[in-house]
Amino acid sequence: MAAQGEDLNLEATELRLGLPGTAESEKQQTPPSGRSMKRNLIDVNNECGSDEEESNGSSAQKCDKQDVHRPSKAQVVGWPPVRSYRKNCFQKKAESESTGVFIKVSMDGAPYLRKIDLKLYKGYSDLLEDLQGMFEFKVGEYCEREGYNGSEFVPTYEDKDGDWMLVGDVPWNMFITSCKRLRIMKGSSEM
Amino acid sequence: MNYFPDEVIEHVFDFVTSNKDRNTISLVCKSWYRIEKFSRQRVFIGNCYAISPERLIGRFPGVKSLTLKGKPHFADFNLVPHDWGGFVYPWIEALARSRVNLEELRMKRMVVTDDALELISRAFVNFKTLVLVSCEGFTTDGLAAIAANCRFLRELDLQENEVEDHRGQWLNCFPESCTSLVSLNFACLKGDINLAALERLVARSPNLKSLKLSRAVPLDTLQKILVRAPQLVDLGVGSFVHDPESETYSKLLTAIEKCKSMRSLSGFLEVAAYCLPAIYPICSSLTSLNLSYAPGIPGSELTKLIRQCRKLQRLWILDCIGDKGLGVVASSCKDLQELRVFPSDPYGVGNAAVTEEGLVAISKGCPKLNSLLYFCQQMTNAALQTVAQNCPNFIRFRLCILDPTKPDSSTDQPLDEGFGAIVQSCKGLRRLSLSGLLTDQVFSFIGKFAEQLEMLSIAFAGNSDKGMLYVLTGCKKIRKLEIRDCPFGNIALLTDVGKYETMRSLWMSSCDVTLGGCKTLAKKMPRLNVEIINENEEMEECIDDRQKVEKMYLYRTLVGPRKDAPEHVWTL
Q1: CB contact under 8 A, B406 and A22
Q2: Closest CA to B554 of B484, B482, B496
């Protein structure tokens, strides 16, 4: 919705104490008579500096400048008055759409690990094909009852609970959200 | 004085349900006080620090239903430090120790730990209702305890809480013998849900009337649930994305058509617009629709939907509906009483898609409108005057212009006249939130006309102490006043110190009151807690009395300064 760019949007999350001005209101050069321009008009470069998470509306840096020009669009702490629960809901949605899901992949016996973005894959076959190419191995046939048959390599993953699971048992979408890292196990000693 | 035995009088008192009236009854004579005291079952505590649990129990030993509110309202907007207070555990502990037969607990802005939930679940055998609004501090483990131990649980309602999600197994903790659920709302949970456990729970809850699902519940589970529970009156949809050609989707259509009792719809936390036609069959009987958490529905789809909801009384929507969409609301929803339009981009400033036009259209089409929360791009005095004329029945009027000091967009004048028209026309107005460019004049109007006003929220407004004084002297019924970034100082604060004992609380942040002013107030009024929140200064540092206070929160209390305040919160 907002025309503020799809990137990290640093400006939107920057904390300022100044008044948010808008492009349209720039036409108003002088404030209405009899009304002193509010305190809290500060230099656009004067930042609050605290973490968005702990926004505290600190006014330690505010100055009572009588300033005629309106500062450019800036964010005021605690404004607009939208419940933080609601704000977090919308922010999280934006984040989950743009960021990838990077996880480490290790293979028993390989000298170093690799990192992949699970979001780039359409499903298990896509993922396994890529892994097999990356580490030069082959997995066996997957069946629900016995797992992978026909190869000493077995793809496993660590889930959110810290348990090591067989790749392929749960629906792909569930897998992406619960997989923390991948490990290609070698040999039958894990049985 | 008594012509009847106590039991008869008590029976008569049973018909008096409003706490205000019961308070009045208590004052008639000693024996009425006594009878009322032991028969009072519902107690509302608007500020958990105004009274102690021990005194509550002493005063109303028969309390069965308790409502507790903790943090000040501005905590919703991150203006109150995280650890400020509002802990419910001491209350639960005291109630448990005194063997109070607690059945219902409703909390807002409190810190609720898993220990507290566990204690509730074990200490109160008849516990039936738990409602948590904007609370924090608990995890799904606490919910598991409630599910497992509350044998007669009827209502578990979690609204907009920050819950740490450990696993999806808490639903499994409802025993097979639990069949009493009437209302279950877990929409705010972020983690996975055990879908099979959910389906089984719904299947054995014949009295279930209200069910609000979290995003983790997919459409196929929803379909199965609706088949089991066609008696639902209030539904919160989790995920609503599916292939509309699929068998699941057509089964959903069939299931929805059988939901003849459905009156309230919400959620759609994940939604594909092409799935929305599935709910068209129930639109004509809906009285409440909340799509404010439904991302990405284009305005055209929203209007198609709303056109069919001709009985709507309450609508919560995102501003992407646009002024035109609000025009459709105005022409379709003649019974509308409450409207909330939220910004779809809460971090953006001034990118809202609605303006004064939408609001004017609503006021013309919906004369029964009495409650409004409206986030908009701009406003004009003329529009507000028109709205005031068309809708004299407002009890709640909250306007938020996203640019907080924006003047009338057509005349560049302050919005004093507009808000003045609202308070003058709406004689029953109880809650008001202001925004836009405002001078002391608007407060003069408020003080003069807003006779029923109980809660007022002010930001970036006014010119001088006079503004605040107009409100304090004029608004006889004001209970909660919250002010941020206004040029109100010690004169306004100290002119009528007795006023604050007639109010629940006063919040002032980034204003001109000084530490010295606050100290003076605290000294004069021992039955107020005057709290100063200073997150930047060190406790030990000698603070000048002339220094302006960052945040001040004062409230009347019968129990003196609290002992659980964190380091940077001082009670003077």
Answers
A1: yes
A2: B482
